Amino acid sequence: MADDRGPLRVAASLPDGTAATLVRGPEEHGGSSRRRPGQEWGTGFVFPEPGCWKVELTRTRGAGHVLLDVV
């Protein structure tokens, strides 16, 4: 889905540049039992090795990231 913030792009990588494979999504979840503003999205990754993965989410207006420790 695209809106005034632009399409959502998602990527994950290790500090050495190794990339995870995005196998699902991003897909918007239209319904949620949690009441809060904003959109809810789902993704699926295959992480080829353990490590501290940086998952980056970007839109035309705004960006963020989360670090995941994959064991």
UniProtKB/TrEMBL annotation:
Superkingdom of origin organism: Bacteria
Region ranges (Disordered): 1-43
Name the UniProt record assigns to this protein: DUF1883 domain-containing protein
Native species: Nonomuraea longispora
Upper classification of the organism: Bacteria, Bacillati, Actinomycetota, Actinomycetes, Streptosporangiales
